Amino acid sequence: MAGPDDVAAPFAALRDDLVGLAYRMTGSLATAEDIAQEAFLRWNAAERDRIEVPRAWLLKVAARLSLDHLKSARHRREIYVGPWLPEPVLESEEPPQEAERMRAQDLSVAFLLTLQRLNPAERAVFILHDLFGTPFAEIAVLLRRTEAGCRKLAERARARLDADAPRREVPEAEARRIAAAFLAASREGDEAALRALLARDVVLHTDGGGVRPAARNLIAGAEKVGRFFAGLARKRSAAPELLHLGRINALPGFVTLEADGLPQTTALEIRDGQVVAIYVMRNPDKLGAVRARLLP
Description:
single chain, alpha+beta, 6-stranded mixed beta sheet
């Protein structure tokens, strides 16, 4: 009979993969960790001597659990208050993927948002095949579709991702410079400095989840976004404390401690030296990992 270490070893080696798959599917690190744990429970209860490739088996279990979660979450997403953003992950975290694969596969908010706009089947096929190397034949069995149908789903997903979320690397020095300049300008309410940093068609996304104050709609345009941050600065009695300056979901950004005692993450999408999108996470339900890491 296999001992506890023999049972857990294959799962432990693949846990980061399982969390990474589920995070990309659901946009929630907490949910992804729950899905990985449920996959382990199913692995523990399975007839393991009949499983030829543990990695493939576990990935498919995590994908099925993610699809089941998406079905139950669809209604909640439809009634979500304001813009929805994925749960933020700070740069030095190991989940939702091991460091090497995090560098190879963009986890920027824009990319994750585009993934979320794919239908669940397209998302599952793209993630399983293109990111985790699962053969189309195995995906077809999981989704109860033909292999040719899965190939078409992957083609549609790739086309959407290439069109909506082009990946551009920003040198680290430039990323930190722009993030620091944006932080200073937004703290001081310097509208002119903000407009100089922002692309003309910049879009601001703020996710408060209906729990903390946030813009209910996207705010577009450098003038409107600049006025928004300048207005926030005028209303504050003191500038928020900086907790972290670095990458958030592979994007330059920072974490601040706000007046209500809760953290807030701000991630900046930069193109050609200007900020083209701003992603502000205020929903406390999505900031658990950030709180655990940065606050006592």
